[in-house]
Hints:
With 92 residues, the protein is an alpha+beta fold. Helices cover 45% and strands 13% of the residues. It has a 3-stranded antiparallel β-sheet with strand order 1-3-2. The longest helix is centred in the last third of the chain and has 17 residues, at 74-90.
Amino acid sequence: RRRVIAEEIMRVLGCTFDPSQVGMFLWGKIPDKYNDVEDLTEAVLHKARVFITPGFIFGNNGRRYIRISLCAKDEKMKEALERIKTTIKQGI
């Protein structure tokens, strides 16, 4: 269930991802409209109040990627999705 929610967050943010990924995290590549991953993650953090991990903290290869943890409870994941949807409608 959490995986489905995380995939929806990726789609709402316009990120591409490999649906065959396995594990406790979902990685996605950010859209080209962002100069770097911080443009997206900072906007989501400050406007939607949701923290999404920027991939660069795991090394240079992650600089155009985000990582969503699948470890949060379903309710928190759903809340994050709704906050992000509202923020996207308002424009980030």
